[in-house]
Structure of tRNA-2-methylthio-N(6)-dimethylallyladenosine synthase:
Amino acid sequence: MRAHIITYGCQMNEYDSHLVESQLVSLGADMVDSVDAADFVLINTCAVRGKPVDKVRSLLGDLRATKARRPLVVGMMGCLAQLEEGQQIARKFEVDVLLGPGSLLDIGKALESNERFWGLQFKDELHDHIPPPPQGRLQAHLTIMRGCDHHCTYCIVPTTRGPQVSRHPDAIMRELDMLLEAGVQEVTLLGQNVNSYGIDQGKRVPGIPSFAELLRMVGASGVKRIKFTTSHPMNFTEDVVLAMRDTPAVCDFIHLPVQSGSSRVLRRMAREYTREKYLEHIATIKKHLPNAVLFTDIIVGFPGETEEDFQETLSLYDEVGYDNAYMFIYSARPGTPSYKHFEDLPRELKTERLQRLIAKQKEWSIRKNSAYVGRDLEVLLRGDAHDPAFLEGHSRGNHPVVVPKAGGIDRPGIYTVRVEHATPHMLYGKLLDAEGRVLEPQPVAAPEAAALSSPLPML
Ligand code: SAH
Ligand code: SF4
Ligand code: F3S
């Protein structure tokens, strides 16, 4: 069998795609990188907003047309598969295999079955399962929990991924050991709400440490860099910040989604914190980690959001001074409380607010990024940039970084980079040698041609 997986959605879906891919390989499949080359195409779906659902619909339309021409098995996994909405789409487009986020290990059974196979249970076996490490990669994701116990009124995730289940630390540490053996140097711990690790459905789970303790355990493993996502402000506690401060491998990077700067909107979202409480958390972070890089998620145009509410989001942005933000227009998702109870705001109003927020984000990102010019950063370069004369990667603060290859450094690794130029999205710099001297890239034969193909903006 030649299999191809197409992944939408968040890092959890990327992790799950890797997990299913390794199952497929162990069943003897060859992984191929296009639909044309495949006889099994599996789409890992996202349902968090309307757009990713539309994309799946159009892709499934194309696949149904392909299926009419040649033998092809079509599968759908992930968040949308778990929803009634997704199952209707699957029926319409003649999907053969459907696996919800809790039934991924049924992939073998699904392919053996001669009939349509739909797996929609949340099975415990997934939590102890350890997928083989990704090959030749310096970065890896590591799921520490699945599901979500919150009920933010706009969000479909608790329905798609079920209640929160924390993974046992033994499974996490075994998976980490395997990642380290395979050469991984940066690990990102994944959960919808990592700060409530070890507290499932409001109860502390025996034998499972707190997230702060887990960070210290992972830090003691020898991994060079640790990141984690996502933190929920409601469960955010100072002990996590202290564990970050005391554990050198943990990067000073925090993704703390605020969603809105207005306490009134936050209440309607059922986020369970106020603007003031959120700002207290930010103050705690800045007190212990003065160099912390702060990212957030913001939804604009939540039902009932007034201009005053939106102004509060803009002013909160200024108060925190985020390095970057993921910004979304509210998308009414069938099955969520806000879909049922609130009226959607006009599209133009939401778009206009998003544009104003993006302007704010750019202003801050360029200001924050420019402060790194002239400074040296530890960068994990994961491989060639678009132009193979350059390498690309990420700093400890998750800034994308591009450098020219120089001094014989042309392969992935962790290096020191002197930042020379910043844009709102990117830092550009040069590699340093062990003595801290700048490594100039080798002169190229045709300078005009090189300048044309360089991803560097004209300085
Ligand atoms: N568990 C994480 C978020 C997971 S979803 C947390 O609570 O922080 C990722 C982001 O998608 C959310 O932070 C939110 O900003 C956005 N999002 C979720 N549902 C949405 C919706 N219905 N419309 C627009 N954005 C949404
Ligand atoms: Fe969705 Fe809220 Fe859970 Fe995040 S915490 S996944 S936004 S319900
Ligand atoms: Fe992720 Fe989308 Fe599911 S954001 S958790 S893949 S709904």
User: Anything to note?
Assistant: The chain has three domains: 2-123, 125-367, 376-452. Residues 9-10, 12-13, 46-48, 78-79, 157, 160-161 surround FE3-S4 cluster (ligand 3) (CB under 6 Å). Residues 294 and 348 are 29 Å apart (CA to CA).
